[in-house]
Predict the 3D structure of the following.
Amino acid sequence: QVQLVESGGGLVQPGGSLRLSCAASGFTFSSAVMIWYRQAPGKQRELVAEIARAGTTYYAKSIEGRFIISRDNTKNTVYLQMNNLKPEDTATYYCKTNLRDIPYWGKGTLVTVSS
C-alpha cells in the first residue's frame, strides 16, 4: 500500500525557514519522481518543486532560489527546505508521486507564514 506522510509544517515568521519531510512507503522510492505541491486557501493546487530519481530538480518560478528539494533514498524520504518564507507561501503542502500513471498524494502539512 502506497503511503506518503508529510510533516514539518507550522507557524513561522516572514523571513524564517522550515524543512518539510515526506516519508514514503509501499513502492520503490529510489525509482520514483517525487513532487511537492501546495494549495493556498481559495486557490488552485500548484506544483512547487520536483526531483527525479537521479536527483534532477525543477522549481516553480515563485519559489526559485528560496526552496530546495532533496531526497534520501536510504530513508525513503523527500525534503523541502524553505528559506526566506513570505506570507504568500502560506498553504498546505502536499507530497505526490505517480506510479504507472496513477497519482498518489499525502494528506498535506500546513505552513503558515505570519508575524
In short: The radius of gyration is 13 Å. The chain has a mean pLDDT of 97. The longest strand covers residues 91-99.
